Amino acid sequence: MPTYKAPARDARFIVNEVLKLEQYANLPGFENATADMAETVIEELGKFTAEVIAPLNASGDRQGCTRHPDGSVTTPDGFREAYRQFCESGWGTLSAPAEFGGQGLPHVLGFVLEEFLCSANQAFAMYPGLTNGAIAAIQAKASPELQALYLPRMISGEWSGTMNLTEPQCGTDLGLIRTRAVPNGDGTYAITGTKIFISAGEHDLTDNIVHLVLAKLPDAPDSTKGISLFIVPKFIPDAAGVPGERNAVSCGAIEHKMGIHANSTCVLNYDGATGWLVGEENKGLAAMFIMMNAARLGVGIQGLSQAEVAYQNAVAYAAERRQGRALTGPAEPEEKADPLFVHPDVRRMLMDAKAFTEGMRTLALWGGLQVELAEKAASESERQAADDLIGLLTPVIKGYGTDKGFEVAVNMQQIWGGHGYIVENGMEQFVRDARIAMIYEGANGVQAMDLVGRKLAANMGRAVQAFFALVDEECAAAKSEPQLAELAGRLEKANGELKAATMWFMQNAMTNPDNAGAGAHHYMHIMGIVALGQMWLRMGAVAVAARNGGASDAAFYDAKLVTARYFAERFLPDAGALRRKIEAGSSSMMELPIEAFATA
Amino acid sequence: MPTYKAPARDARFIVNEVLKLEQYANLPGFENATADMAETVIEELGKFTAEVIAPLNASGDRQGCTRHPDGSVTTPDGFREAYRQFCESGWGTLSAPAEFGGQGLPHVLGFVLEEFLCSANQAFAMYPGLTNGAIAAIQAKASPELQALYLPRMISGEWSGTMNLTEPQCGTDLGLIRTRAVPNGDGTYAITGTKIFISAGEHDLTDNIVHLVLAKLPDAPDSTKGISLFIVPKFIPDAAGVPGERNAVSCGAIEHKMGIHANSTCVLNYDGATGWLVGEENKGLAAMFIMMNAARLGVGIQGLSQAEVAYQNAVAYAAERRQGRALTGPAEPEEKADPLFVHPDVRRMLMDAKAFTEGMRTLALWGGLQVELAEKAASESERQAADDLIGLLTPVIKGYGTDKGFEVAVNMQQIWGGHGYIVENGMEQFVRDARIAMIYEGANGVQAMDLVGRKLAANMGRAVQAFFALVDEECAAAKSEPQLAELAGRLEKANGELKAATMWFMQNAMTNPDNAGAGAHHYMHIMGIVALGQMWLRMGAVAVAARNGGASDAAFYDAKLVTARYFAERFLPDAGALRRKIEAGSSSMMELPIEAFATA
Fold this sequence. Notes:
homodimer; 600 residues; Butyryl-Coa Dehydrogenase, subunit A, domain 1; 11% strand; globular
């Protein structure tokens, strides 16, 4: 049976030592976020997720969700009780706004929770995760009346939320939506259509489920400009918030999936269900993107979370399983064989996982901070800088984070050899669960196009230029420190490859936009590597200072410096190869007709 | 429901135009292998695998194998009938030796069969696949009496075979084997112990199952030098080959696995079972390696096969599913959206799959030819050259072929978006099935060490030097052809990276063997890329000649040239990055103690 222990020490290091959360104490919501408080929250989150949520991961996968003939869905054994404890402990309210009953703590701590919860049990984490996305959209765009009615109950966890975008004919291309919304004349709308792949679409955890549904008004433009967003509650609440009449939305089926079995992925049928408009008519996409952006960061964290839990279990196996001898001679001659840990190829996969998870954790938590600084930083220029950076890096955190997170989960399964392929050992579940994160909330190819087609060009490239300059500046500053000079030098070079690739797009995508599309995936990966490198430089600087300052936990900081070096040596070289692939352009990629791909 | 069509045109191209099988008509077994005959065999194999075997793939995955309380195992519905047809059609005898009832055709055609059969249904293919491995060992090492008794019935498919290496405490490290063989005094041995992960270990397809079992004699050296190989039949045959008494071997359990559900992976308990020695006492490992080498090439083909069938289904979806618009403007303005096929990132994944599968098919079939030339070529120097090359490239075909095959299967699932995660669409099964090939028959890290630790150094590097020279020679020859010059130039450069990496090992692995271990995985991947590049150069040369000669199927040859260019632009750049990773050595990889990996 796999196990999970929250990486509390590392999260504390990032929050308190790298991001230095305390320095923002002057900003609203950060007043109480002292280092001690962050430490306490992180420790308690770690205990709760490891002790209450993780034990339900394998059993939830095995049992899955059950749809009953009346359309109701029950979650796996133990989920209701665990969810009750989750709400009672107040974890769902952690970084929710205080005016609606949240604790109003920094998002960074909310992101720590997302990672721990997802590592413990991704399918479980999705129930509150989807609710958070719905909360964000309602908070940003719904009327004060709708906010007052829905937000407190969603934040407390009494009610949950969903996102309803996909239809059978319509995934990425939301212009193809067919679900209709017809005004009832009383301010409400009658919603009719079929939505598919609705995570947490129907279940037994909450008293009500608040569906956020994209639909088209009669005579709306037949494109993404004609989409509106509606709240469609499963039970229609009265003014006091008591769920009443059952709305005309029902679960037609739950999907059989490769993984995340314990989350109910539903076909939802809307049959004239009563809905309330969120924001303005035909402006639903803007509201939906608020959910999507929050959700994309959350999905990036899922990539990290599955890599992390798989890594922990691979470390345990590598320490315990004995097979073969160290190449340099028996490490433990008194035993019949050495632990797997002595083999360089096993170590390669472990170090790769360590360099990714620790770097990615820093990038994700840094991202959580930028989300908030974009709103709350003291000056307009600071707010804009944070908003630029998180806008630029959201597709990278999602796309690179989940691509690499999946790769790491696969490698950790590999360390288990044949035993990794056996269901009962749990490693294969991490791989199956990690796989979905590359697909949902915008498949990673969509993330890459968002990055290259939208984020690079926004404001005349302001965000990406700022990113380049920041990385170069940090590299220049680090070069004088002998323990960081190699990383700084290699990172500067990788940043140069990224700049060159950007320049190549500028010169070649105007005449042929396929040249941007052809290199988008590679570009997203270079930027992921560079962003992680930047985080390793920051961690490295903290580690050097801690060692020089005589910090007590020397082994922890020494490991950071070794891992930073590993990152420099094994991650950064890919940047050059990726640039060369980008510069190959779209010609050989796009030349063949579809017939050339047919099997004969 | 996924579909499968055998890539007969491409196999024919490789066998008849690239490898030119007819040129070997002077060698034993090749006499009848005319181009027409090869074409007929390939077409018929294609029909049989697509029509009879492929339809059982998804249902077999869903149903799996069933172990009954008496220890017997039934395969999924339809498997018995399909296996009967497989035997009756004589497919199992294709390249088996004529003296024992085989058709004695070239191995190359046997390899075509392996690919088609595995694409159609990997779990099914493993039943005859394991039998083939057992046949190879018996043919090479068993006494004439055992050969006469077992080989004809195994070749006809009446009896099947298994390989019994793994035990709970012993995977890669066969020195740890505990299964005991005690002489009975009548020339037979009593075998006692537990074997795990035995593919096709117990089932209802054949009248008998011939287990090849590694065990230790009393007082044998306690290392790999003390291992012997035994035949242990499920039913003990009389001299006429009629299965009689049930032997003391039983299936204790079947494993629950991530994939290949339709193959019964068994725990086999030997309780004083009667066994017959194969070869000499304590020399079992040599015999087992004959099976392993054949099996490793077969597993490399599995990587290809899952990539191929996943690719076919991704092509179909990309042509049919409409979502979004081409970046260069609507491709089909009369429709509401363009097919996925117009999107560069979709095309990237399809071209990547096309470049891999067609290159890998060529490499695998080339490998099948070398196996036979190593035995049968007219001169000793030709035999040695073939033996050197296939010895060198066997771990590459297995390790690179399955790593990249899995990656391609994952990408093909990605093209299906959310629908790729749904069980009923079948894409996720290809991923789950492909995953095992990276693990069994020596995990890919073991392949990498076989390559770097054993194959490079053998005969003072004779094989690898010959490989380098051959690639350089072919590059030099191709540079004068404008349509191949770019590929030739880039391949020469990649070959240079491989040479530099080899030199680096020579200079740095003697003082510290971990430097070889640390780079082994990367080295295997460079060599995979270079070997595929060599095959693309050969295919390209054939395509140029065909076009110049006015061949009728112009589109086919043109597609080869475009794909060769894609390969040059998108696969070969990785060689440089991989070399740089190798040259980083083992220092940062091996420096941390196990405690540094523990979660705190």
